Amino acid sequence: MTAVADCAQYGEPAPPSLLMAWRIEQWGDPYGKGWMHWPAGMIDRVTIANNVYKAFKAYLGAKKLTDFTASNPAAWEIVTSVMNLRKEHGN
Predict the structure, then answer these.
(1) Strands (DSSP E) found in 20-68
(2) What distance in Å separates the CA atoms of residue 46 and residue 33, rounded to the nearest whole number?
(3) 18, 50 Cβ separation under 8 angstroms
(4) Is residue 90 pLDDT above 90, yes or no?
């Protein structure tokens, strides 16, 4: 999650799970049979990466933090979770 946040916040290279999310948004299901036929765990990794990226982009683009947190509580929870992970790991 921190690598995805670093991509959104600092312009670091996108990790594979985020690249896959972007490819799916642009091109659709890479396996052609629906997500139930994807490799185990891939839907979770791709979804988490996409959610973290979008939450950080929304947070970084917010004009007023109080408005952002009030209108986007789930995104704020993601942002604070990643920030806490960074603190725990010294990033």
Answers:
(1) none
(2) 17
(3) yes
(4) no
